[in-house]
Amino acid sequence: MKTFYALAVILSSFNSVFGVPIADAASQDLEKVLFPNYLVPIKQAKPKIAFPTQKTGQVHYENPTDKNEIKLLVGFDVPKNVGTRCAIKFGLEAKVPGGYQWTVNGSGMLDVWSLASMITPGVTTWNNKPKRTTTDPQFTITQYDDPEGGDAIMTGKVIPCKGGQRMDFEVAGTRSGGPVYFDWYELDSPKSGITLNMYT
Questions:
Q1: What is the model's pLDDT at position 169?
Q2: Whether 104 contacts 92, CB under 8 Å
């Protein structure tokens, strides 16, 4: 855990130097926090199986030769006339007895891409998922493996909000980080999981 913490701190410093963190200063312009309408897993080991939307999020990556990768497709219904700039955020609640015991193993790093078209729960699979809108990820999540939870370190840049439309994303383990496993229960109170923040 100490090694991972040190790595996360170094990563945070590196990102700060190169100007890619999502500035917390933008929070003063925060208009709304959106929670996912859809959490749809796609599994490399079951490429033709379409899963319904879930209440939990799960992402797994081991290595390039392992064929058991799990990605997560996330969809948000974006309201009209609320904000013009959007950014993905992530955080986990503190672990408590009787609560969902979320897991963050390995690098603690996830990459996020916008998708070019909408996902459909029960229809979208590993084989037919929508294309990404960019080659490089638009956001990277770095989450500490700490029972107290907390907000993840987020890197990336705000993107235009699509007011009155769906905004869908693909979440996958960061390849350069090595093996990673996330498992969490999406909650609005206390806030836990992935969200889409809307700014003026």
A1: 98
A2: yes
Q: pLDDT tens-digit profile of 167-196?
A: 999 999 999 999 999 999 999 988 999 999
Q: With 90 as the cut, is the pLDDT of residue 49 above it?
A: yes
Query: Residue 149: how many CB atoms within 10 A of its CB?
Result: 20
Q: Is 26 helix (H, G, I), strand (E, B) or coil?
A: helix
Q: Which residues pair with 32 in a beta bridge?
A: 198
User: How far separated are the first and last CA of the chain, in Å rounded?
Assistant: 38
In 3D space, the residue among 189, 110, 196, 101 whose CA is nearest the CA of residue 153 turns out to be 110
Q: Is 107 within 8 Å of 174 (Cβ atoms)? A: yes
CB atoms within 10 A of CB 195: 21
